[in-house]
Amino acid sequence: MAKETELICIMCPLACRVTVTIDDEGNVTGVTNHLCKEGEKYAIAEYKFPGRVLTTTLLTDDASQPLLPARSSKPIPKTRLMDVMYSLSTIRVKPPVKMAQVVVPNVAGTEVDIVSTDELPE
After folding, report:
1. Which H/E stretch holds residue 86?
2. DSSP-assigned beta bridge partners for residue 52
3. How many Å is the Cα radius of gyration of the chain?
4. Residues 6+ apart with CB under 8 A from 26
5. Choosing a second label site near 75 at 20 to 30 A (CA), which of 35, 55, 81, 115?
6. pLDDT given for residue 32 in this prediction
């Protein structure tokens, strides 16, 4: 028996309520209610791997720059975002850090790195 899941597409400002139809084996068999091809691609990808790129700030040991902006190197599974945020709350970054440097490898066992989006001079 086919199952349907509704998602809100975020690929454009229209925010279509896209319906994804899934067969008994978990395969996507159809996508409806999207107004563009990007919406169809987004819905399939979101159903198969609901992940998000995480942007955050990390505490530093530098009083002149107490926070270092950072992001994940690739999407993190939505179900693991809170685990990752908790793990990052315990981290203190020591200078120097270069732009795009990996500051936390394999965060919370997700095989995703956290990289700096700014520099932290010595």
Report:
1. helix 81-88
2. 76
3. 19
4. none
5. 35
6. 95
Residue listed under structure tokens 């563009």 = 36
Record the tokens describing residue 111, joined without a space.
Answer: 């095989």
What pLDDT sits at residue 69?
A: 98
How far is Cα 76 from Cα 53, in angstroms, rounded to an integer? 6
Q: How many CB atoms lie within 10 A of CB 91?
A: 15
Q: Are strands 55-60 and 67-72 parallel, antiparallel or unpaired?
A: antiparallel
User: Residue 11 in contact with residue 39, Cβ under 8 Å?
Assistant: yes
CA dist 18 and 36 (Å) reads: 11
Q: Contact, 62 vs 53, CB < 8 A?
A: no
Query: Which CATH superfamily hosts domain 55-116?
Result: CPE0013-like (3.10.530.10)
Q: For 85-102, how does the pLDDT look when each residue is reduced to its tens digit (9 = 90+)?
A: 999 999 999 999 999 999
- Distance from C-alpha of 117 to C-alpha of 97, rounded to nearest angstrom: 10
What are the residue ranges in the chain where pLDDT is below 70? Answer: none
